[in-house]
Amino acid sequence: MHPHDTDVHTISPELPAMFDGMKLAAVATVLYILVRCLNLKSPTAPPDLIYQDTPLNRFLLKSCPQLTKEYIPPLLWGKSGHLQTALYGKLGRVSSPHPCGVRKFLPMQDGATSTFDLFEPLAEHRTGGDITMVICPGIGNHSEKHYIRTFVDYSQREGYRCAVLNHLGALPNIELTSPRMFTYGCTWEFSAMVGYIKKAYPQTQLIVIGFSLGGNIVCKFLGENRNNQERVLCSVSVCQGYSALRAQETFLQWDQCRRFYNFLMADNMKKIILSHRESLFGGTSSKRIDADLSRLYTSTSIMQIDDNIMRKFHGHSSLKEYYEKESCVHYIHNVNVPLLLVNSADDPLVHDSLLTIPRTLAEKKQNVVFALTLHGGHLGFFEGAVLFPQPLTWMDKVIVGYANAMCQWDKQKPPCQKSATGSPPQAEGGCAEEKA
């Protein structure tokens, strides 16, 4: 036998244990990162509510259980505000329906042409009344977005007529007819749509709804002129930031990746603006804005685009003036109809410091309820068991639930309390004339 044949090659028993330890450490690290990034340890809870104790608010909390029950997002990813926001932005909604509506064109005084889509109810409203939801979508959005289509279809089936504003310039197949497009706080197009609805349906009552930027527009619309609150039963604002001036600094911070979201939003705005380049910047009309397109191409934030382009549509001399005059924070205290303000604590676009505005408002005004969820991201609010979300979101259900409660409250009020002027609801039952 060859002497080498008797050699035995052995592996130190410590080596397999070391490799197993490294594998376990790697798995533990990945799990730790997943738990942290997906926020899996975060609890679920009902929305944090700020409101005053009035008969109307007590009725609301009994009639709208979504506001008092736990909001439970999908287990594996629903507690991440970033994933909620990303999925909303990329996918919109699950199994998005295709509601059938009619597109209306409204000529504006400055030559612009506003459009909105009108959807008739698919069932009788539970109160038997004629109720129209007038809806303002988020930045650069329109009636064809999945989250709008899902909400409209659900509302139609609950007996609501829906009118959805298409932001000026947002629809890719509709050309601008003047050198102007939608801006952060311009209420002209929304006002024209509401005026059309009031004239076309003299008996209808309105529920005013705004999403994100649309929330700023509807609150500003209601507060800038008391007449705008006529025939309005209530209003809902979801995921808005209330003050562009205060949000400006937070949008430049990398905390919660806000700077990255800012870049993505700016890139989307650039595409919309450049798709209307000829209408906005072409020709020789003296009304066309003075804009340096090279600055638009190099813009990496919404603020740069607002300063170089958007503020000039309405003649604002500075970005500060534009943000001051177009933010609803200066008008929202004039809103006297019932108002539900909804935000999410993990919304990566809305900094927590901005939420002092709705908190303070709800503490001071009887008509305001502020609901803050732990999870939901920006316009996400998906619900589901483990992985797959449901077609309807918590946001869809809470808006319709709130609207149903307000319609029921209005129906059961004595006739002398029913008001078409948008005055605040009376706190107690009965009428002054009857008590006399």
Topology overview:
Elements: H1 14-37, E1 48-50, H2 55-63, H3 81-91, E2 102-107, E3 113-119, E4 131-136, H4 146-157, E5 161-166, H5 188-200, E6 205-211, H6 213-224, E7 232-238, H7 244-250, H8 258-275, H9 277-281, H10 293-298, H11 302-308, H12 319-326, E8 339-344, H13 356-364, E9 368-373, H14 394-412, H15 432-435
Parallel strand pairs: 4-5, 4-6, 6-7, 7-8, 8-9
Antiparallel strand pairs: 1-9, 2-3, 3-5
Can you characterise this structure?
The protein has 436 residues and is α/β, with parallel strands linked by helices. Helices cover 38% and strands 12% of the residues. It has 15 helices and nine strands. The protein has helices at 14-37, 55-63, 81-91, 146-157, 188-200, 213-224, 244-250, 258-275, 277-281, 293-298, 302-308, 319-326, 356-364, 394-412, 432-435, and strands at 48-50, 102-107, 113-119, 131-136, 161-166, 205-211, 232-238, 339-344, 368-373. A nine-stranded mixed β-sheet has the order 1-9-8-7-6-4-5-3-2, sandwiched between helices. Strand 8, helix 13 and strand 9 form a beta-alpha-beta unit. Helix 2 packs across helix 14. Residues 420-424 and 426-436 have low confidence and may be disordered.
